[in-house]
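Recall that a protein's primary structure is simply its ordered list of amino acids. Everything else, from secondary elements to tertiary packing, is in principle encoded there. The following example makes that idea concrete.
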Amino acid sequence: MQIIYSNEHNIQIKMKQSYRSDRKTVKRTKIFCWAIFTLSTLSILNTSCKKFVQVPTPITSLNSANVYKSDATASAVLTGIYTKISSTGVSSGLSSTSVYCGLSADEFTLYNPASEPGYVPFYQNSLTNANLAGGDFWVLYQTLYIANSAVEGLTNNNSLTPAVDQQLLGEAKFIRAFCYFYLVNLYGDVPLITGTDYKSNELMSRTPKALVYQQIITDLKEAQSLLSDQYLDGTLLNPTSERVRPTKWAATALLARTYLYTGDWADAVTQANLVIGNSNTYSLSALNSVYLKNSSEAIWELQPVNSRQNTPDGLFFILPISGPNLNKPIYLNSDLINSFESGDQRLTNWVGKVTATNGGVSTNYYYPYKYKVNVPGAPVTEYEIVLRLAEQFLIRAEAEAQGTGTGTSGAVNDLNVVRNRAGLPNYAGPLDKASLLTAILHERQIELFSEWGHRWLDLKRTGNVDAVMSIATPKKGGSWQTNKQLYPLPQADLQNDHNLTQNMGY
């Protein structure tokens, strides 16, 4: 039976924190404060539902020093991070990277924009520094604070089982890299905070993007050497089939992506090779089973923390038979639907359709249908995939096309792996570099649509954002300006920290 993120036992950890954010009011405190984080602990069940490990009922609170005195409480800190990522910020359905970045790009259409003031600034690329939603992802600094605290508490720790300490330290560094990857891609230069000293943190200025990437790469390399190459259960001592705790391969996959984003083609290929070469663990799944929990394609997944739902994407994206409405106002852009090639089985497997009639006029609405379950209380059969194997083939294809030795043949071979899985023939287009890169970017658009903001980030990193959005934004009722490719920093933070500066144009 699956690992469960249980709320049965909670640990309240008093920490000195410099950042306090929520999705309605994003602000940064300048005073010394105590923030109480409630971190869900992890209960592990086997097939007979017997708990392998259970954290005993805790005392009222533990200070951050005492947390790292036992395997169970230390593990609960990292489990709390996964719970936080699953329920707020980057993957929380209504305000996730999949939603906001998809709206910002050319993936989604917003139903009745006049009734959706919270989504319109993303959809029409009209965010201002007054839009609090632009700072929704700033909540990642909360997660970073806990990760930084974990790194400090686990480094040179002699109280934990060595294997547990090593795994948790690797997880903390992986999570820190993961958070900064999204922060730097959504906001550009951001404060680079790797400690928990609130006096230093509250006065941080923005760090150049290149230096943030250096920290991401450093953390991921260290995570590679610390993390297990097997998926571990809640004890962090036994292997499991659940792919919800990061492994060496998750760090490697994110490192391959990071190298691609920074233009280090050779290292991107090297890291993608390692993941793709681990065929005993990873293989491409059939299209209709990619998003099932623990699929062979999944490198890292998030486990549902709400017992009444499978995934936020399934709950939010699947439209009712009556079509989009105020509760489900987002559907796929017709330009994206028309971009699927004839015979592409991803269109029939990963895209749903409803036909709604209004005033005697019938309209087809298409929606992401990668995750099939949206019935509250249904058995959990799907986990939210964060990293998967198909992306690694496309990373390697793009880096090879940029010229790393294997060149055209290697890039085409990897492109065909993804195309063939979708029922498409081998790529038969021009083999010059520009044409091949265009084909790979198109394949990423189709393969990774509605996942973790890939399309928005791809348009920006490849320099195509102005060309695409100058056409797409007017169709959405807005006017494209190149500075809108970065989101604004929260205004409250700028007011509280005069060392911070706003992104250009806000």
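Residues 4-304+386-496 form a domain with the Serine Threonine Protein Phosphatase 5, Tetratricopeptide repeat fold (CATH 1.25.40.390). Residues 1-62 have pLDDT under 50 and may be disordered.
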